[in-house]
Amino acid sequence: MRLKNILITGLLIIMAGGSVFAQKKAKNTKGAALTDRQFWLQQMDKMVKPVLYNLAKDSLRIAMPKITSVHIDNKEHRIKVQYVEVLGRVLSGIAPWLQLEGGSDEEVALRKQYREWAIQGLKNALDSNAKDFMNFDIGGQQLVDASYVALALVRAPWLWENLDKKNQALMMQSIVTTRRFKPVFSNWLLFSAMNEAFLAKFGYSWDPMRVDYALQQMEQWYIGDGMYSDGTSFAFDYYNSYVIHPYLATLANIIGTKTSSYKEMFGKIKKRNERYAIIQERLINADGTYPATGRSIIYRGAAFHHLADMAWRKALPKQLSAAQVRCALTAVIRKTLESPSTYKNGWLTIGLYGDQPNLGDFYNNQGSPYIASNIFLPLGLPASDPFWANPAEKWSAQKIWSGENFENDHSASLK
């Protein structure tokens, strides 16, 4: 009977639509148009609430669908690892907003609720007696997933500081246990490095060799014009944005405080970050669409993880104004989430524009598309920041395709 009640409660939660912010907005605005920030908060809330609400209630395993790609390689295994996967991907995207203080009364209340869910959810994930307890040692994929949890904690020290000592130790041990997995000779090297950077940031013993190996190998894989190959061959996909640039920027920020050995390399990384941000902004079409090329295209807005990260870190190059980036990213959010089949019973479907199962890859499970939350990183900037406060501006594609006289673009080696 207890299980039946839990299932019914979970179903009602999902059917309710999930967006507390959207419901309150409807009452408060009486049809008034949402600001960009309100729209972002509405979409963030709708996307991540089913994950963190259920995890906080110790019911994620009950409520979360066990959906995998139609091209899946090992369905049973991919379902087992989807819980750490969804935890890291959701938290890494909303971490800067959780770290922020202040804002409208409504936003402060929403953040307070999410902070409570996040802390309780982490405790449940680390509690071996909880139904939602998460093992970090099931398989190699969890090296990836642990790194997103580590990235979230690095981006939001508030989360770490509000875990008690016992759960801090459990989290540290969970992340360390993924050292047993050998990373694929690709962007996966950065996942190992991020886990070590997390340990370094919070005062634990860390392995400089794992960080050095990743940094030195990525330097070898740099091919020019702000882009890296992912392993020994280049692929025209979005992994420079999904992983490579945001991870390198974060590593530079953390490891740069521990040693000056990489000063020259980090200087190059900064310039490459800027060049790739310019390329990313130009990839966003006038209607918010972008080339649907390469693997992991079902990650939706995470294709612009790097551009969002640069905006949040206030590291955009001078060629890009904060307002034009805001407007471009808003268009991407709107386009990638507007399809009626984007969600099924409140959960993200596998697809780019709605439910498109054939776009999935062999490693995709229900947790995979939640990396899309990383487009919301600029919510970590206060509403008074120029990113939000400045008037709307056209982005490059809008200017070019409306016939404006616009500056041309040139590649840059930056080796």
TrEMBL record:
One Pfam assignment: DUF2264
Domain DUF2264: 36-395
Descriptive protein name: DUF2264 domain-containing protein
Lineage: Bacteria, Pseudomonadati, Bacteroidota, Sphingobacteriia, Sphingobacteriales
